[in-house]
Amino acid sequence: MFLSVRAAALGAVAALALVLGLSRPVAAQDSLYGKQPPPGSAFVRVINGLNRPLQARLPDGTQLRATAEDAGRVTPFQLVRDASRPLRLVLSGGREQTLDIPLKPEAYITLVVTGEGAQGYQIASAADGVMFNKARARLSFHNLMPNCAATLQLAEGNAAVFRDIGFGAAAWRDLNPVSTGLAAPCGNLAPAQITLPRLEPGTRTSLWLLPAGNASRLILTTDAIAGWN
């Protein structure tokens, strides 16, 4: 009897040690890299290219709200736990429309609502990988100017950062954390210009080229991620 109780106790201790041993690498990884998303998941955000507010509802009921003002056009990234199947997204504003959006696991996915026509909302999708060089800053460039293959370049010297980015498309690269002036030539329009502040290593930032009457403009947003459990 004593031996069986002692064996059971030792077994429980061993099982507890195994659980604790397995949890340490996960805790260490979270401490080193920040909280890690579940395997097979993705992050999704919406950028509103319309001139009125827009809402996007995810299958779990989460609402992504994007305003028509530049400060609120871009929603935070929202975790989608299963990116192996299309995301059923309900867009509403002037009309309500249900769309199935293909996803890519382990990616940051930007859904760009570029316009609205007789057939409904027009959406472009761009996916960036989760991992990047954390010693640098991640910069994405999104072109929302119709009929324009845009280039993002240094304001002085004209060296290209991104070249020939089509309407609704995007590109990414890792940059050293420096401050510099940028310009975005687009057809015959005067280049939109912006001063890129010194970006912190390990952060993600987005530049958006948008219409501004008969011209274009650049807006800068820091990529935000909504919390999850």
Summarize the structure.
The chain has one helix at about 1-35, and strands spanning about 40-50, 55, 65, 80, 85-90, 95-100, 105-115, 120-130, 135-145, 150-155, 160-165, 170-175, 180-185, 190-195, 205-210, 215-220. It has about 230 residues and is mostly beta strands.
Task: Tell me about this structure.
With 229 residues, this protein is mostly beta strands. It folds into three domains: 1-36; 38-131, Immunoglobulin-like (Sandwich); 135-229, Domain of unknown function DUF5300 (Immunoglobulin-like), CATH 2.60.40. Helices cover 14% and strands 47% of the residues. The protein has one helix spanning 2-33, and strands spanning 42-48, 54-57, 63-66, 78-80, 87-92, 96-101, 107-117, 120-129, 137-143, 150-154, 160-165, 170-175, 180-186, 189-196, 204-212, 215-222.
Topology (elements, then pairings):
Elements (H helix, E strand, L loop, with lengths): L1 H32 L8 E7 L5 E4 L5 E4 L11 E3 L6 E6 L3 E6 L5 E11 L2 E10 L7 E7 L6 E5 L5 E6 L4 E6 L4 E7 L2 E8 L7 E9 L2 E8 L7
Parallel strand pairs: 1-7, 9-15
Antiparallel strand pairs: 1-4, 2-3, 2-5, 5-6, 7-8, 9-12, 10-11, 10-13, 13-14, 15-16
Protein name: Alginate biosynthesis protein AlgF
Pathway: Glycan biosynthesis; alginate biosynthesis
Family: Belongs to the AlgF family.
